[in-house]
Amino acid sequence: MSALSADALTRHRNEEAKWVVAQVRQQQKKVTQLVNVEEHVEGFRQVREAHRRELIDDYVELISDLIIEVGEARQVDMAARLGVSQPTVAKMLKRLASLGFIQMIPWRGVFLTPEGEKLAQESRERHQIVENFLLVLGVSPEIARRDAEGMEHHVSQETLDAFLAFTQQHGTSAE
C-alpha cells in the first residue's frame, strides 16, 4: 500500500470517527433535554398522588384479604403482615375510618365500608393486571408478585389497559 493511499485511508477513518462521535452527541442531547415544565410537574404530581394512595390501597386490600381468609381483620395481624408496629396500624386505621373506607367496632375488629370494599376490589384487580403482565414477559412468579405490589400504584389507567390488552393478546405464562 502506498503512503498516499494509507494517508487517504487514515483521513477517511478519522472522518468516519468524527461522524460517529457527532451522531452520539446528537443522540445524547435528545436524551438529556428536559421535558417541558407542564409535563415535568404532571409527572411529579402523579408520583406524589400514587405515594399518598399506596398505603391506603395496601391497608384496604389487606383488610379485605384477612376478612376473606380468616374471617376477621385485627390490628395485630395487620401489623405482622405489614412488618410495622401496632401503633402504626392504629394510626392508619383512624385515617381510613375518617376517609370512610373502614368501620372499627370495639372488640370485634375492622370492617370495610362499601366504599372500602370497592377500593379493595379495584386494588386487587390492578395488582392482578400488573402481575399477569410481568408473568407474560417471563418474570418468575415470586418476583412478579413482589414487583406488582409496588408497580400497581404507579401506573396510569392507560398503562393498565395496555398491560391488560398485551396479556390478553399473548396469554398468561401459566397457559
UniProtKB/TrEMBL annotation:
Known role: In the presence of manganese, represses expression of mntH and mntS. Up-regulates expression of mntP.
GO molecular function: DNA binding; DNA-binding transcription factor activity; protein dimerization activity; transition metal ion binding
The family this protein is said to belong to: Belongs to the DtxR/MntR family.
Protein name as annotated: Transcriptional regulator MntR
Location(s) in or outside the cell: Cytoplasm
PANTHER family per record: IRON (METAL) DEPENDENT REPRESSOR, DTXR FAMILY, TRANSCRIPTIONAL REGULATOR MNTR
InterPro entries (alphabetical): DtxR_MntR_Metal-Reg, Fe_dep_repressor, Fe_dep_repressor_sf, HTH_DTXR, Iron_dep_repressor, WH-like_DNA-bd_sf, WH_DNA-bd_sf
Subunit structure: Homodimer.
SUPFAM superfamilies from the UniProt entry: Iron-dependent repressor protein, dimerization domain, Winged helix' DNA-binding domain
Keyword vocabulary terms for this entry: Activator, Cytoplasm, DNA-binding, Manganese, Repressor, Transcription, Transcription regulation
Cellular component GO terms held in the UniProt record: cytoplasm
Domain HTH dtxR-type, chain residue ranges per copy: 52-113
